[in-house]
Structures
1.
Amino acid sequence: MCGIVGAVAQRDVADILLEGLRRLEYRGYDSAGIAVVDGDQQLVRLRQVGKVQALADVMKNQLLPGGTGIAHTRWATHGEPSEANAHPHASSGHIYVVHNGIIENYQILRESLRERGYLFTSETDTEVIAHLVAFERESSDSLLEAVQRTVAQLEGAYGTVILDKREPERLVVARSGSPLVIGYGLGEHFVASDQLALLPVTRRFAFLEEGDIAEVTRFSVQIYDKTGAAVSREIHDAEMSFDAGDKGEYRHYMLKEIHEQPAAIQRTLEGRISQERIEVTAFGPQAAEFLSQIEHVQIIACGTSYHAGLVARYWLEQWAGVSCNVEIASEFRYRKSYVHPNSLFVTISQSGETADTLAALRLAKEMGYKTTLTLCNVSGSSLVRESDMAYMMRAGAEIGVASTKAFTVQLCGLMLLTGLIGRYNGMTTEQEAAMVDALHQLPNKLEQTLSMAVDIETLAEEFADRHHALFLGRGEQSAIAMEGALKLKEISYIHAEAYAAGELKHGPLALIDAHMPVIVVAPNNELLEKLKSNVEEVRARGGLMYVFADSQAAFASDATMRVLDVPHCDALIAPIVYTIPLQLLSYYVAVIKGTDVDQPRNLAKSVTVE
Ligand code: F6R
């Protein structure tokens, strides 16, 4: 979603801001803008609809000198993508604002500001922040005070940076519900919605907390908490590598991230499993105490992360002997639900900032869940900071909007959780050792599975002119089928649905004809024979099938069925292994269709608004 970059330095900052925006492109956006001011209070603002490159092109013809500036990529919520709606927004000729999030009471504020004579030039909610700051600045001693008074009137979510061109030596930033980091340099400071944007200029970051407001100058960063008290926030060294945002030899980030999975899994398991045991410290120092008391697990997530939760439900109930519910965050947060005794509340999130998941966590705490745990890929993110325990995924930066390596790494983390909770609920040491052994095999198995890419690229040709597809699986694989369908629809725009194969005859069988490709995931497990019967049901109705099957599952290609051999693997890790061919299929179909693979239309990477 929207991205923010800001800088206060002695050197000119336009190029730093532009590079920051480029590094945030992955989040999804539809327009971009920049404002830079020099020591003589000369400010230039440029805004463009479309890609950051369009902004870069106009910047080539326009000098932007100045050491203080703000920049933004906008993902439209209020008002269409247009130059007038792009940030930075301005008021009174001197206040400039960039903002992520949604101001829910903007209509009321807009009306009262209009009555005070402020003229609105956009349809955005953000413009009220600019006018309110300008209004409050008239009767405040400082920009900081004006911003403090402004945010006290805002309802909703914001990460915002405010520049007053009459005070070019400072920026004021405020965070509530939308993340912001401060980057510390030598005699210069930076702000951004994501540290990735600032890695070319600094590796030292402090994460603002909810309600924080900070005044940032070249030489100082002063942070105030929601009560207005001066506070200090710990400065961390970035764990991400500088080139986390590079595609390397790959054509798309998504392909790079698909191929990174063996290494990402190696990393996530490192030091967390021994030869035969799972290390309880993988979930933090208090994990042994917390996990030993768990009788029920409630998992909350969105999208792909939700699918990881659905797989984990099978594992937790089968292996760990605890009941488990899995729910989409946006549903959970708006309904009255029952809290089982001794429940562990688990959020799964790549970004750690998904608005609905975060709101669900906050609700869970009010509801009295015993313990909260997050499986998350971004250290310092809101979910990590607000949960009792955190499993850091170590997947590395995921740039492609379609989640790939985060999903398989989440599954590894969830398997470790299963083994640990199981340890306190009758899972034997032999069972735990078998689980660990299967995990040790995983990186190698994924390498082998990735070699299916060549065949899948050819297969993808057959999908390019399809309008619909059906994905089928049984058991945990029904969730993998859902993930396969989500991947195909989000990047190739082909309508895809997934069903637990046993549900076929309860409705979806009516869709089957020679034009409906049916993709089946068929590992060699105890449900294989049942799945084969479902395959026959499709065949009998003239369906066209593509079966990703265990090499030992005895499927054979014929006129109505293409079988693609998946390397034989332990049934335990099969959900992770079978994810790979489905990711590759959607990737190659999207490439053939010529869609924007890494930034599919209408979607954003980190969904920080509900
Ligand atoms: C799909 C995808 C999304 C995310 C969802 C949750 O490929 O990426 O469905 O999984 O928006 O995001 P996180 O995991 O960051 O909470």
2.
Amino acid sequence: MGLVVQKYGGTSVKDAERVMNVARRVTDTYQKGNNVVVVVSAQGDTTDELIEKAMEINPSPSKREMDMLLSTGEQISISLLAMAIEKLGFPVVSMTGWQAGFRTDSTYGAARIHEINADRIENELDKRRIVIVAGFQGINKYDDIVTLGRGGSDTSAVALAAVLGADVCEIYTDVDGVFTADPRFVKTAYKLDEISYDEMLELASLGANVLHNRSVELAKKYNVKLAVKSSLNNNEGTYVKEVDQVEKMIVRGVTRDNDCARIALCGVEDTPGKAFQIFSLLSKNGIGVDLIIQSIGNGTQKDISFTTTEGDLDKALEVMDGNRSVLKVQDIKWSKDVSKVSIVGAGMVNNVGVAAKMFEALYNAHININMIATSEIKISVLVDQKDAERAVVAIHDKFLV
Ligand code: ASP
Ligand code: MG
């Protein structure tokens, strides 16, 4: 008998009709003789609506109470889905993250799973029940409910698949799988049949918005067979695998991330230790830094620019401004109107000229590059936000059409 973990995202359970649709898919899998564990997200935009409700009352609530609130979205979904499955006449039980044994660290709002005690789930499976688990949540050492960060249900599902030794972890969404670029504005984008864990991890971290990046990290670490599919049809979907099992492509996908802000420190004193001072101040204050560029100093002064997320911008500016005299910075400039556009592909490693081709595509589209960063399997550029969609289209069409 097989064991299948399925995860259904918010759009797949957004209303009664969709919940019934999921119930039928789950029971079909069960009837084929499999044990089935299902992880669900909150219905539709529930999580966003809960955040709005909180903001109406208190714009800066404690993270503990925020997690208490946000975890309720998934609880609605698990009970409704269990009721739908009951109606179809199958044995089923729903569980909160806590009942399912998810223990996490104490970081409210972005907790990491420490362990899953799956005894209760295994007991239920032995009785041939379908088990429905609330995604995105667990409890910490104080027995408080915590959430795993936005999009965290994917991670709940992969972690469960790893612990239970599932044959496959299927992530169901409202698109057919992982695409070469966002099909909403790249008309020529197409679905990939397969992708490596490393490429998927980069795409997820660079704004592709299909899988929670931590879920991919876990899948790679525990060798979980992962598939991304649509809950609205029976198409094949995209399989995420080890690098040596997939055909190497120079570029597998193009992404855009608008959640970027750039800070430029102009006229920084050109002496050793300045970068160290700046970036240790940022890291001490918990501010994540992404792209960095430093100009060649003229002996007395240089410029250092870096990007962070829009959410961290104010804090970063405050820290830089507060240390102006220590850092010996003349001027601080910033902008939120920037986007990061990236290409990802494992075949890039041994291929010279990939960067040149990407820059050529941008040049032909008259798009200016503000910053560049490269690694083994990705190249990112920072462009003005107004140019970002055009940049993705131009680069996608250069490499993938
Ligand atoms: N409901 C949560 C969110 O919207 C978790 C998830 O959907 O994975 O972020
Ligand atoms: Mg998601």
